[in-house]
Amino acid sequence: MKLSKIQTSILFLILLIVVSFLYNYQKILFYPPFSVHYWRQSDCLSITLNYYQENLSFFTPKIHWTSPTGDNYTISEFPVIYYGVAQLWKVFGQKEFIFRLVNLLFVFAGLFSLFRLSLAYLKDNFWAIYIPLFLFTSPILVYYTNNFMADAPAFGLALSASYFYWKYYQKKKWTHLLAAILFISLAGLLKISSLILFTAFLSLSLIETIPQWIKKQLTTRQVLLKIFPFLIVLVIIGAWYIYARHFTKIHNSGIFLQSIYPIWELDAAKIHMILDSLYWQLLPAFFNKKVLTLTLLLGLSSLFISPKNNKWIINLYLISLFGIISFIILWFKAFDVHDYYLTNLLFIVPFSLLLFLGTLKSKFSKIFRHWSLKLIATTVLLFLVYQTMFINRIKYNAHDAWLSADLIEKKGSVDYFANKQKDYNETLKALEEITPYLREIGISRTDLVYSTPDYTINHTLYLMDQRGFTEYGYVPYKGVEKTNDRIEYFKQLGAKYLIVNADKYTKYIDEKYLSNCIGTFQNVKIYKIE
Q1: Angle between helices 220-250 and 195-214 (to 10 degrees)
Q2: What is the pLDDT of residues 137-180, one digit of tens each?
Q3: What interhelical angle do 5-22 and 96-122 show, nearest 10?
Q4: I need a labelling partner for 382 at 20 to 30 A (CA). Which of 137, 342, 443, 513 fits?
Q5: What backbone torsions phi and psi does residue 350 show, to the nearest 5 degrees?
């Protein structure tokens, strides 16, 4: 039975939701910032909470962490999601699941756009559903979709832009181009890495229009009209980054990366170390290495046999590959542990499949439609979903009952996350509920505290909704051996309270700072600094 477009769309959305349940999204949706890179998640939430609590203007975001000058203004990416979620909190209350849900909807909209693009291009219901579900087995995409960071929603917007640009390329309707420009502008404002696709769109337009202009088939005015929308994107994004750099220069610069992180600033040993981390740690988080290699080979091999009517996707593919290589070189230093920097490079996976399947359909239509190929593809998809399900679940609960059926993850991974989660539960979990108690004993949210141990910028401060200091940033006083120097320094900066979330850490603190304990909340001790 052949399904209609609406029926196929409904089937895709049902399968997407089913897979999300396998990934445990229904529980993760209600978690606070937790697990891998919880520190960066907390930064996003800190900005949002300060918008919510202080009614800040859009262009003046704050965090909880306080600099030596007493300043806590700073900017990361374009704060449209942070500001928007803060407004939702004003209506529905401060609920972290709202933030996760907003990011999730951006990505799901992008996956649905990819489904529509695949359906329109391949005109095959199976492959149209398959391609976005195949993409949604990427461990980093699955993890950061139901999360607080901007990388996944930026990727979702870029996928939506791809669909509308393809529609424009086919039908030349300005409404499609304007939609593509809107989505890619928002994506680029959230994460600069999503502009790889913008560069590809612009290059395709130039490849198409310049030869026509040379042959005088288009006037200069007509060429400029076609290029003008792309120039608007560059102006908008350029203006934002100029403002962001100016704002952080005045306030707190260096907290968030707002420039390139190039390979040429590293020596050979450091380059080798990052390459090792990139291959053994980040690449498996990006996608299953063997399946990724096969997918890229299928895409690259198609370049040599693809028919002329696939020219648009060939050019898009080649330009995108060049963009990915350029991005890795320019931000190479970030690939030591920051797997989320790779999120916006994931578009190469569905593009490889689209190029290969489009070529297969043109050259070998019987194989393209044959049930055996679709059975093999389904088997691969089920394996990837199975693998990613366990990878995602273990990050939140190493004792998840589903893990007993895992035949893939190594015991070392289980032990690693089990220890991390045990430590969190014994130290930081209490901070999720401590805020009313702090207010009860007379500590206001603007009273400066020193929260320790915490080597992140905002994690414990966000959980407590408390302005103050952590171990982050104060270079002359780093290390446990300088704990007392750090307390004295923070005291001079205005810290009134010392909040310790791990009893074993008190052995590094001078008794004079522990003489006035004004409260205890589960494992957390609160001291007034005399």
Answers
A1: 150
A2: 999 999 999 999 999 999 999 999 999 999 998 888 889 999 99
A3: 140
A4: 342
A5: -65, -30
